[in-house]
Design brief:
This protein is mainly α. It has helices spanning 3-10, 50-56, 61-70, 77-87, 93-109, 121-136, and strands at residues 26-30, 45-49. The chain binds zinc ion.
């Protein structure tokens, strides 16, 4: 799949930093890196800017996302979930297995990833949800 085809499919948005970039600054990111038996097939590719593609190197998707979150960055989890779901149906077994494993790991990361998950926000929301009906009763 060409970079242009990829941009048409996914948009000109980097999955790692979420920035919209010019075509010349975009690359076809291998979700399962080539060094780890990933192929240049449509389901193994996602759009990433040059800077992020270089910075991620061959880190597994979930490990890189965790590192990004620890740095306070906001990867496009929606795009990554879509991409990994697509990849989990890959005809290539290493790719399909990799995608399923990364999805499971990302899902485990998910609770702290909610947009409103700043300090204190989530516990408060949960308290409100559980206390609401009780307060009415
Ligand atoms: Zn980027």
């Amino acid at each position: 799949m060409t970079l242009d085809g990829l941009i048409t499919r996914d948009g000109a948005i980097c999955v790692w930093c979420g920035r919209e970039a010019w075509r010349r600054d975009l690359t076809a990111e291998h979700l399962l890196p080539r060094a780890r038996r990933g192929h240049r097939t449509a389901e193994n590719l996602a759009v990433a800017c040059r800077t992020c593609n270089k910075r991620r190197r061959t880190k597994p998707v979930a490990a890189y996302v965790r590192a990004q979150l620890e740095r306070g960055e906001q990867p496009r989890l929606d795009l990554l979930f879509d991409a990994l779901e697509r990849m989990s149906a890959s005809a290539s077994r290493p790719q399909a297995e990799y995608a399923r494993r990364q999805l499971a790991l990302l899902e485990r990361l998910s609770p702290p990833l909610e947009p409103a998950a700043q300090d204190g926000a989530r516990p408060r929301a949960r308290t409100l949800r559980t206390n609401g009906p009780l307060a009415l009763a």
